[in-house]
Amino acid sequence: MKDRVILCAVITLHSTMVWANICSFFLIPFLEPWYVAAPIMSLILLLTFSRVLDCPLTTLENYYRKKLGMRRIGGFVGHYFIKPWRRLWARREKAA
């Protein structure tokens, strides 16, 4: 039970961080000068799309998923945002 609560907390925190980064990427150019905004936006893009860098929150989530007997995920955004969207899209196309 404790591990499941921790897993839910990690997923919630991770989701919050993803949305904060997305919002920051679009707000920073208006709130900071270009010489501050450009490196921050570059870092956000690097962390978002890098296949080499492993997110520590994904690693932590995979640890608790393994403890609970669940499958490991490859990436947070792909698992929780992209795959459900694709499944929904496939159902819509099948229904039409």
Topology (elements, then pairings):
Elements: H1 2-31, H2 34-49, H3 56-67, H4 76-95
Helix pairs in contact: 1-2, 1-3
Describe the model:
- The chain is mostly helical and 96 residues long.
- The chain has one domain (2-95).
- Helices cover 81% and strands 0% of the residues.
- The chain has four helices and no strands.
- The chain is globular, with a radius of gyration of 17 Å.
Alpha-beta classification: mainly alpha
Oligomeric description of these chains: single chain
Report the span from N to C terminus.
42 Å
Order of helical and strand elements: HHHH
Offer a quick outline of the entry.
The chain is an all-alpha fold. It has helices spanning 2-31, 34-49, 56-67, 76-95.
List keywords for this structure.
about 100 residues, mainly alpha, 4 helices, about 80% helix, globular
